[in-house]
Amino acid sequence: MNITSGTEEEVTMDEIGTITDFIQDEAGHGLYLYSAMETLGKSRDQSLQELIDGKAKYSSIFNYPTTSWADIGAIGWLVDGAAIVNQVALQRTSYGPYARAMVKICKEESFHQRQGFEIMMTLANGTKAQKQMAQEALNKIWWPALMMFGPSDKESVHSQKSMAWKIKRQSNDELRQEFVDMTVPQAELLGLTIPDPDLKFNKKTGHYDFGPINWDEFYAVIHGHGPCNKERLEARRKAQEEGEWVKEAALAHAKKQRNLNAA
Ligand SMILES: [Fe+2]
Ligand SMILES: [Fe+2]
Fold first, then answer.
1. Which ligand is nearest to the CA of 79?
2. Percent of the chain at pLDDT above 90?
3. Nearest ligand atom owner, CA of 32
4. Which of 164, 187, 215, 228 is 20 to 30 A from 247 via CA?
């Protein structure tokens, strides 16, 4: 990945720091959610195996490529921004372990969102090439970010049941609208253009109207045919295989410590 910010040849330590913080937090989010799953009787190993076997669902957004430093900014700003809108509502979900995990996750996501926005701000106020890099990243991530909220309420298979059980507290379309209303003024502040010719503030409703979403793309992505599905799952598989010895060593060390303590 080209991680440089557009003017410098070298990757800066700040840039490396930003991205490693991100990765550490996100790995933590995965573990909180797997822990919530454990309370329902499914072990972490099982959950991980299902992911690797391609059986588990995961967010559609993880199947899109990141090729520039601006993509990291746009993902923080938009993807974490969309995640916050979704997850703030989930803090009030009816299942306690899930709701409690969301509290910490939301705090971290809002940090990522600001960090991403700051990266975009730096690029948007930088050289012409940097601003263009930021615009291209916005063009690339905007629609996939809107798709993150899932199909329209009319099409969503699980929505009704999830709403009845109070697992979901707001519908996909409501959350999507909330995200658009929150994000459009931020794009204006950056001086970037949202790639939607139909986007327009509607004085009557007090919300932004936006153009149609390409649901064919969304369904292709969730059924395994997105730009990076194979590559991303392959990376998980490889990490599992190549990290096996680390787990074995950690378990052996823990056993040794237990024996020492018992002696
Ligand atoms: Fe996260
Ligand atoms: Fe995040």
1. 2
2. 78
3. 1
4. 228
